[in-house]
């Protein structure tokens, strides 16, 4: 096992790049699922350093990016028209809805607050018993335990003015949707290490077997990602496919059993809409009936609110790996972090934001 400080060592990066170049004889498309992986690849210049026959395809692993417009509209409605204290992670408040973002709703007088933990929202509810408090519970499997725990705490504390607006999505069904797309060109995957730290790796074996693709669970440091690419390339060059765990210093086979138990107590698997992608069966979490009093969708009867996506935004094609961010005609012109058309230009894990902030656009591979 390496010391953590070694994961940024330039010498290791050079060694791994050399091994990748000498090993990769064919042309391979490797998708990194997680937006955190994308940002590391872009920010550290790895895309330019990889040999030209290795193309990284950016996946849909940004929870803010895939939160559907109708849920943002619902959050805006709760904040503006229902008078709730609407709490959210920071990135979410700037994501455009059909008519406005939560930040714009705040400018119109809505009580929108940025928090780092849903447990802080429970505290706000306890301190304001005459106000309804809603936490916009967004995320993949990584944030689900904390959001579930907030509901458990509220129920145990009889804090009846707290609820969550749930937009939790799951990685494996998204991977399956990508692989069944007729335009899919993915040869191998880099799996999201932090998701697997919670859920383990067992649910990925069927995907590897079904689609005959290598899958390597990786971390987020440059060396993590380059080791993952090398492990995937070795499999591809040898015509094999299996699940490898590069991130074994963090990820265990069965994941975090306590965290999974909390998730299972509060949430159940359901179909989910993904912004720019559409409905993916059994790809998200909803609040179980036993905690219905803490489900904002049911408490405020807001299922009727729809949503309109900007038809000029190509973020769906970006998140499905069909185009790179700078191949969108709106990139940097009609769409920027100051005035985004879609969520990937807003989120700290969005591919469009990564390209805008960190990439030399003249050297991005098409």
Write the layout of secondary structure elements.
Blueprint: H1 10-23, E1 28-34, H2 35-43, H3 46-49, E2 54-61, H4 63-66, H5 69-81, E3 85-88, H6 102-107, E4 111-114, H7 118-127, E5 133-139, H8 144-156, E6 162-169, H9 171-180, E7 188-192, H10 193-199, H11 205-211, E8 215-218, H12 222-237, E9 243-245, H13 257-266, E10 267-274, E11 278-287, H14 296-299, H15 315-319, H16 351-358
Parallel strand pairs: 1-2, 1-7, 3-4, 3-5, 5-6, 7-8, 8-9
Antiparallel strand pairs: 6-11, 10-11
Helix pairs in contact: 1-12, 2-16, 7-8, 8-13
Sum up the structure in keywords.
Rossmann fold; 16 helices; globular; 366 residues; six-stranded mixed beta sheet; 38% helix; disordered C terminus; alpha/beta
Could you characterize what this model shows?
The protein has 366 residues and is an alpha/beta fold. It has a domain at 65-170 and 255-299: HypD, alpha/beta domain 2 (Rossmann fold, 3-Layer(aba) Sandwich), CATH 3.40.50. The protein is 38% helix and 19% strand. It has 16 helices and 11 strands. The strands form 2 sheets. A 6-stranded mixed beta sheet has the order 4-3-5-6-11-10, sandwiched between helices. Strands 2-1-7-8-9 form a 5-stranded parallel beta sheet, sandwiched between helices. Helix 2 packs parallel to helix 16. The longest helix has 16 residues, at 222-237.
